[in-house]
Design goal:
S-adenosyl-L-methionine; Rossmann fold; Methyltransf_25; alpha/beta; Carboxy-S-adenosyl-L-methionine synthase; binds prephenic acid; SAM-dependent_MTases_sf; binds S-adenosylmethionine
Length: 244
């Protein structure tokens, strides 16, 4: 995304009380910088979205980008597929995110048939889709709601349709602290201070509870996906492909 984003300094000064993390205007303003410096493999995963779409979609396909934020995954598909090849709906819960995504995609993918909608993936209407992307979004739902959402996505997919699911993950037993420590080193290497890392961790504690990769695969199997593979992992961030 070529948007010049403000540098993320949200947690850089000591806060009396750290509020729960939310995708409000302040986060939207610095989001590209925040996610690039926080999520190992973010650029690789989003750029592969277009490559994956080019492999699996046929002309006339419909795509859903759920929890689209500023539309990085959507834009990746627009860079790989011609405007007449597909239609796409990008959906996000955060109104400021939706407004900025609309403006950016109107600038950067004006020829493509994209609709950006505000909605909650737990209950918004989902059109029949040949590809669904849920990148770093399921992790923000209560763990008890995740089965039902993956079931909705399975139901919305056409036979043979593909789900691209990317998540922060909890390491398997015995591996948890290694991945967390290295992720904090990754953030430090990208210019975040110990204060920023620790205050953001507190802000995310109640609102982002990662599952193990094995839990994701068990859920995908339980909801009926015939094939599901991890195609990417970088520290405690992973991306899966699942086929109906
Ligand atoms: C880490 S960001 C996703 C990044 C994005 N997919 C990308 O690749 O750039 C998580 C997004 O999920 C959205 N979100 C959280 N809960 C949601 C829900 N229940 N329904 C729809 N969107 C949700 C947030 O507003 C936020 O924009
Ligand atoms: O796990 C963390 O510490 C993160 O900062 C991760 C994460 C994410 O995975 O979405 C959390 C919130 C922001 O959207 C950017 C990155």
């Amino acid at each position: 995304m070529t948007d010049v984003s403000r540098r993320d300094a949200i947690f850089s000064t000591p806060l009396d009380q750290v509020a729960d993390f939310s995708f409000d205007e302040r986060v939207v303003d610095c989001f590209p910088d925040m996610i690039r410096r926080s999520v190992p493999g973010y650029a690789q995963i989003t750029s592969m979205a277009g490559v994956i779409a080019a492999r699996y979609l046929s002309p006339g396909a419909h795509v859903l980008d759920l929890g689209c934020s500023l539309g990085a995954s959507t834009l990746s598909i627009c860079q790989r597929l011609a405007p007449e090849a597909f239609t796409l709906q990008a959906i996000d819960l955060s109104q400021p995110m939706v407004e900025k995504a609309r403006a950016l995609l109107a600038q950067q993918a004006s020829e493509h048939r994209i609709e950006v909608l505000q909605g909650d993936i737990r209950n918004c209407p989902l059109a029949r889709a040949d590809m669904i992307m849920v990148n770093f979004t399921l992790q923000f739902l209560d763990p008890s709601e995740r089965d039902q959402v993956i079931q909705r996505l399975y139901d919305a997919l056409t036979p043979g349709g593909v789900l691209l699911l990317s998540e922060k993950i909890l390491g398997e037993p015995g591996q948890e602290s290694l991945l967390i420590d290295l992720h904090h080193d990754f953030k430090r290497a990208n210019g975040y201070s110990d204060l920023e890392i620790s205050q953001k961790r507190t802000a995310l504690e109640e609102v982002m509870i990662p599952d193990r990769l094995s839990t994701h695969h068990e859920r995908l199997a339980r909801m009926g996906f015939t094939r599901h593979d991890t195609w990417f992992q970088y520290l405690n961030f992973a991306s899966m492909l699942a086929f109906k």
